[in-house]
Write a structure and sequence with these properties.
Helices cover 18% and strands 31% of the residues. The chain has helices at residues 53-64, 80-83; strands spanning 17-28, 31-43, 49-50.
């Protein structure tokens, strides 16, 4: 007898999760590594991303082994307090 697997809802909003591929920033020791085409489950309602442990381990391995990235991008950095409450 075949049983249906129970779908686990989003832990933030109780929304439905769907399989997808995403872009994911991975933070490690003050640096940001950007991974593309990462398999994930994404909440249809709020957009929260969930990753399988094997996926997280693969990203961690790439960072720890200092794997050569496909490309490098520059990212502007702002300090919120410097501009947040200035008058227009």
């Amino acid at each position: 007898m075949k049983t249906k697997s129970k779908k686990i809802p989003c832990s933030f909003c109780d929304g439905e999760l769907e399989n997808s591929t995403v872009q994911h920033p991975y933070h490690w020791q003050g640096r940001i590594y950007l991974f593309e085409n990462v398999p994930a489950q994404v909440c249809r309602q709020c957009g929260e991303k969930y990753f399988d442990a094997r996926v997280v381990e693969a990203m961690e391995r790439a960072v720890l082994k200092k794997t050569k990235p496909r490309r490098t991008v520059r990212v502007p950095v702002f300090s919120f307090g410097e501009f947040a409450f200035q008058s227009r």
